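Chapter summary example: a protein plus zinc ion.
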Amino acid sequence: MRWSESCIPTLKENPREAEIPSHILMLRAGLIKKLTSGVYSFLPLGLRVLRKVEKIIREEMNKTGAQEVLMPILHPIDIYKESGRIATFGPELFKLSDSNERLFALGPTHEEVITMIARDDMRSYRDLPQCLYQVLTKFRDEIRPRYGVIRAREFIMKDAYSFHANEESLDVTYRKMGDAYRRIIERCELDYRVVEAESGYIGGNESHEFMVLADNGEDKILSCECGYSVNLEKAVVEIIEKNTKKPDAGEIIEVNTPDVTTVEEVAKFLGVDRKEIVKTLLYRVGKRDIAVLVPGDREVNETKLVNLYEGEEIRFLEADEIKELTGGPQGFSGPVGLPGGVKIIADNLIGNFSEMIIGANKADTHFKSAVAGRDFEIDSFENLALAREGDKCPQCGKSLFVTNGIEVGHIFKLGTKYSKSMNAGFLDTDGKSKHFIMGCYGFGVSRMVAAVIEQNYDKSGIIWPRELSPFDIIILPVNSQDSEMIKIAERFTKELEEKGMEVLLDDRDLSPGVKFKDSELIGIPLRLTIGKKLKEGKVELFHRSTFEVDEIPLEEATGKIMESFTIKR
Ligand SMILES: [Zn+2]
């Protein structure tokens, strides 16, 4: 392909709207173009990469025996009412109405649609198992679209769904899908982790995320030397030592703590460690109020709290609501003397406190030596504290460390979540009607392009892995006015294309400096430079990843290029 006839609008400057390398480079290399917030066009160069990612995904999906389908983007809203997901999905579901005022949604994923297909067309155990997949544009009304195609409102995803007669059959497909995802990421030459994850709004019993490691990744992964990895949101803080200390026989003591509201301030004022204080956080869940207790040095894992009250709206109480409920100002809340209807939920770590320092629901006042079960009652214990670096590995006990990642794949064991709510089943061997056991498996295709760049760039631009590069080689005649150079460049283009290589010929009438910079920016692994060495009968083969240059006699060039091409493959 000739660059002079292509739409590859490279930019010299970093666009102001972009914050992270992949977003900056996708715009600068002319891969994508923004239409509006979180909505992008893929230009020719970007589309070539996207198609290569799709090709790898299709090949690996087909190897597992999954069958490709294509489902609609436009969904009647009723199907989300049927599954109950309209509540859990909330405002992120894109809604629109037709001219008859019937409500529709733009598909965020396709559990409902595929379950309807299975309900009608998989009637017997003999029809099972089946796994169907598609590669399709998806929609999510992100509150804060950012990082280009990483968190977009319109994006391309591969989603697969499997239907089974029993758990064992689901286990087999779940494993196969996980293996396929590993191969996809390995073919893209990326460093990654498979981590235990929360199922979130998709729901279900077990799920794993495939995280491409990247400094700018939005997801936090806790890992251990032993190989254990978990999403920070999913991680459970291990209780290392059981507290055997008996509480002091003394009574609960009221202490004056003027103008200290934060845990740090209270700890400093009382001369104790933050760990000895218990934070009380007040939330409104639906129409009732709850108090959540966590150790003073821990934060609440909001994801776990949301999952605990699945489908209900949760928010912090406002200062005036706190005053009304507890009688005290914000910053001095505690579990003693709360109205009867307020459930007190404690993190499991609270079970380790024989006595605690808590807010007294009164201005400038805390309690010391408060004892659960004596001074107040805890209604239930849950895992609600957010894990952090330095926490102990549940497998080996060593310290966990945090790495950032970009989630490119997520697989779920859904069980009967959708088949039950949508009443989809089959006749089993015993002649009884049963609900399908389901799995679902998502892979972010457009996001993967960005994830690849996050791991493969330098100050000059992108460095594409061999299998994803938009072209195999760029041929660069230094002077487009020099007919001899152009003739040789065109000869190489033809010859290499005939040998099956994808060639970009930079025949633009621009300064050599601009052309070199552009070729490094768009990151094609090999560059054949036809320049002043031509007088000596030589051309230069430049390797993008190492910046190494081989001078090669003209007649040996094709052979040498094919060698570099095949070795790297
Ligand atoms: Zn470990």
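Key point: The two ends are 21 Å apart (CA to CA).
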